[in-house]
Design brief:
The structure holds two protein chains of two kinds. Chain A is α/β, with parallel strands linked by helices. Chain A has helices spanning 7-23, 35-43, 86-100, 121-131, 144-147, 153-159, 192-200, 214-225, 255-262, 353-357; strands spanning 67-74, 109-111, 138-140, 164-168, 171-175, 180-181, 210-211, 233-237, 243-245, 250-251, 268-272, 280-283, 286-289, 325-332, 337-343, 349-351. In chain A, α3 (86-100) links the parallel β1 (67-74) and β2 (109-111). Chain B is of the alpha+beta class. Classes of the chains: A alpha/beta, B alpha+beta.
Chain lengths: 373, 228
């Protein structure tokens, strides 16, 4: 006879089973906390402890988009060397495990920039070494924390040019270096380390704001001239390619000029790092998605939050790695992307392409229960 | 000049920049002195610290503008060899620190028997002292070293401009700790855990400064103690 289990043991067993199951979900397998499903079960006369069904995988509850392929992302790991700080190193390892566990595997993994915290060669080398264990091909993007110690020398030596484009399954991908800054260091007589420390402080007002810069905009113009207007374009940029909040450098000075270059294309998506939060925006026909950090979450800026953004929950400091994570981007047949934020220790947040395409009218993601204030 | 060997030139005491030097070095006297002309026709003007000097061409009595220029040069040299003296301005250039309430409307009024008529200097002095405390807090808040972090983590890495610290909600029952806590308890929790440092004493000057900075940044937000 089966031993009677107490409700808590049963709850934890079911919870474990749920997360085991989660690991084997294919990329079309969506799940959600389904109060509706529980309601249906209750209506059918079944009685159970409600907590036992607090998480339900609902097969077919959300229609899978007609995606052609998917890619995963890891971003903003801010590595110190392990002897200085083991936590950020372990977080990147966790993200690598996440993307390696995806089944089927993503076509590639985008690394979204800020691999290092202070641009030290040892930090970048450590990051490069860890990313070697990613099974899928890795596409690298540079962030300001990688750049401002030696202005990209070490990063370029490890990962190649910071600006490039490639075509994949009918989509034109562009990777930008969007964290250039006007020279604020020479006049102040700063050492490279002082320059790096200044840029590394998000609320440090001494630094200039980010920009793509005229030479790179010219490059982008020429690169896009070869691409048909109907071809879907996906841009990877470390900084958000729009004006969000200037005091924290959530800001790219020449974003309007870059947007103007992207505007003629029917289908354009920008995937950016730097903001360490769930962030959704649309300017004209350009869709924007932020990426999560593996190191720490940023709070939402006190003003300028794009109207389409549904905030992630206010992270709980007592829950290590809350508000951090990685994610997957599904590219549909139409070239639009659905974005999955794989928030560690919480349910993932799904921002479907239809949500942005309908300007927020359809498929609105769930609102958070603990908002920032 | 009473002493032909050491002609005293009081420079720029009306100039705000020089005033800082004078205030900073009040124990050493408030005069800069020029020694006799050198063989090449220049005069060495020395600051009241007895160490900082500049060479100026000897061409009769200097004008007020030239005097100011000499004072500025001395000041610049003194600043270069005494870094951190204007730490409030340096810190404020880096990080936004919300200014304390403006009390200028009190100038000329009396606060009763214990404190006489309030002067402009009073109000300016209060503001400077208050702002200095918050500014000191900003230095600690933004420095892993000052916080004693063993993993190079500082407060601003999660809380730029002290965002998401909501000091106005304390005291509150912190469910994760199972007790009612004050802001300083949460500061210490953060120092111990995400920052991985040693707790500060509740009256530690760094703790007091951190509280001052965090509270200053939420100026104008209504107190709502107990809010979750």
């Amino acid at each position: 006879m089966a031993k009677r289990k107490d409700p808590e043991t049963r709850y934890y067993e079911e919870r474990d089973a749920f997360f085991r199951d989660l690991a084997h979900l294919d990329r079309r397998g969506f799940f959600k906390v389904a109060a509706a499903a529980m309601g249906a079960a209750l209506a059918s006369g079944v009685t159970f402890h409600p907590r036992a069904f607090s998480m339900v995988r609902v097969a077919g509850a959300a229609k899978a988009p007609a995606e052609d392929f998917s890619f995963a992302y890891i971003s903003d790991s801010h590595l110190y060397t392990r002897d200085v700080n083991d936590r950020f190193v372990n977080a990147l390892l966790r993200a690598v495990d996440d993307v390696n566990a995806l089944d089927p595997q993503p076509d590639f993994v985008l690394y979204g920039g800020d691999l290092a915290q202070l641009g030290q060669p040892a930090e970048l080398e450590l990051g490069a070494q860890i990313l070697k264990s990613v099974k899928a091909p890795v596409r690298m993007m540079v962030g300001e924390h990688d750049w401002f110690l030696d202005m990209g020398v070490k990063w370029n030596a490890l990962f190649g040019p910071e600006t490039y484009s490639f075509d994949h399954k009918g989509v034109h991908f562009v990777v930008l270096q969007s964290v250039h800054e006007e020279d604020f260091w020479t006049a102040r007589g700063m050492t490279p380390m002082e320059r790096m420390m200044t840029v590394a402080g998000l609320d440090n007002g001494v630094q200039s704001r980010f920009e793509v810069g005229a030479p790179q905009r010219q490059w982008l113009k020429e690169d896009l001239a070869k691409v048909g207007r109907k071809t879907p374009v996906i841009v990877f940029s470390h900084s958000p390619l729009y004006h969000y909040y200037e005091p924290w450098n959530f800001w790219t000075v020449d974003a309007p000029e870059v947007q103007a270059l992207l505007d003629p294309f029917d289908t354009v998506t920008v995937i950016h790092g730097h903001t360490h939060q769930v962030l959704t925006n649309r300017v004209g026909n350009i869709h924007f998605h932020g990426m999560l950090s593996t190191a720490w979450p940023w709070p939402y800026a006190p003003e300028g939050l794009p109207a389409l953004t549904l905030q992630m929950n206010r992270p709980d400091p007592f829950n290590p790695q809350d508000g951090c994570g990685d994610g997957v981007v599904h590219v549909g047949a139409e070239g639009l992307v659905g974005k999955v934020y794989n928030l560690w220790n919480r349910n993932p947040v799904q921002v479907p392409s239809t949500y942005l395409a309908s300007r927020g009218k359809k498929d609105r993601p769930a609102a958070p229960t603990r908002t920032s204030y | 000049m009473r002493n032909p060997k050491r002609r005293g030139i009081v420079i720029g005491t009306t100039c705000g920049v020089a005033l800082v030097v004078v205030l900073g070095l009040v124990t050493q006297g408030s005069r800069a002195v020029a020694t006799d002309a050198g063989r090449d026709g220049t005069i060495e003007v020395a600051l009241c610290d007895g160490e900082t000097t500049v060479q100026v061409a000897q061409a009769g009595k200097p004008t007020a503008a030239e005097g100011r220029q000499i004072a500025d040069e001395l000041m610049a040299k003194w600043r270069a060899s005494n870094p951190g003296t204007d730490w409030v301005a340096e810190e404020r250039a880096k990080h936004k620190i919300v200014e304390p309430a403006d009390n200028r409307d009190l100038v000329g009024r009396s606060q009763g028997q214990t404190y006489g008529r309030i002067s402009e200097q009073d109000v300016v002095g209060w503001e400077r002292a208050t702002l200095a405390m918050a500014t000191r807090g900003s230095q600690v808040f933004h420095s892993a070293d000052e916080l004693g972090s063993t993993i190079a983590v500082s407060c601003d890495m999660c809380h730029p401009d002290a965002a998401n610290t909501h000091p106005e909600t304390y005291p509150k029952f912190q469910v994760q700790l199972g007790r009612t806590v004050l802001l300083r308890d949460m500061i210490n929790w953060c120092i111990e855990h995400p920052v991985r440092g040693a707790k500060l004493a509740e009256d530690d000057p760094k703790m007091r400064a951190l509280e001052a900075y965090i509270l200053a940044q939420r100026k104008g937000t209504p107190l709502e103690y107990g809010k979750h």
